[in-house]
Amino acid sequence: MRSKTQELKKEAEKSKAVAKELEKKLELYLKQAEGAKASEQRAIEEMKMKT
After folding, report:
1. Domains of the chain, residue spans
2. How far is CA 13 from CA 10, 17, 43, in A?
3. What tens digit of pLDDT does each residue of 15-29 get?
4. Residue 47: CA atoms inside 13 Å, Cβ hemisphere, count?
């Protein structure tokens, strides 16, 4: 029984690590998307000024 508990704890730790890694990737993706949106907005503003 004890080894099953330890096995489950190890599995939980792995899952936490994977979740943390995915969270970091998601945050990076969201920052990139935010940056792209801001860049697009600046380009639109520049085009408006030129016309």
Report:
1. 23-51
2. 5, 6, 45
3. 999 999 999 999 999
4. 6
